[in-house]
Amino acid sequence: QVQLVESGGGLVQAGASLRLSCAAGGRTDSSYNMGWFRQGPVKEREFVASITKSGSNTYYTDSVKGRFTISRDNAKNTVYLQMNSLKPEDTAVYYCAADLFYFYTDPVEYDYWGQGTQVTVSS
Question: Cα angle vertex 46, ends 43, 51, to 5°?
Fold first, then answer.
């Protein structure tokens, strides 16, 4: 089992930056592909970004390309989501997810999830 704990959310104004962290605990002897998802009010959970085990490949949804950057520090078992130029439509609960094999956009394919961290962007 892998436990994921997100942190770094908060209330910011439009144009500001935040960095989310996702720390993995438990069975971390295997490396996992990691993803960030978000769920806004009355919306389904949507893919934001993902990164492969080694960090060599990253993927982003179109709406965050050029503004968000996913990265990882495998020595610290931590994945980050740097969010710049935040917009009110980025307001959501942000979740990190992990999977041994899958690294793309479908949330159903990820085996492990964190509890989420709230990001609120005011206009």
Answer: 160
Whole-number Cα distances in Å, 83 to 12, 27, 70, 101, 104: 11, 28, 9, 26, 19
Q: For residue 100, which amino acid is it?
A: L
Q: Which residues contact 121 (CB under 8 A, 6 or more apart)?
A: 12, 13, 14, 16, 86, 87, 88, 89, 90, 91
Cα–Cα distance, 11 to 22 (Å, whole number): 18
Average pLDDT per consecutive 10 residues, the chain (123 residues; last block may be shorter): 95 98 82 95 93 95 98 94 97 96 93 97 96
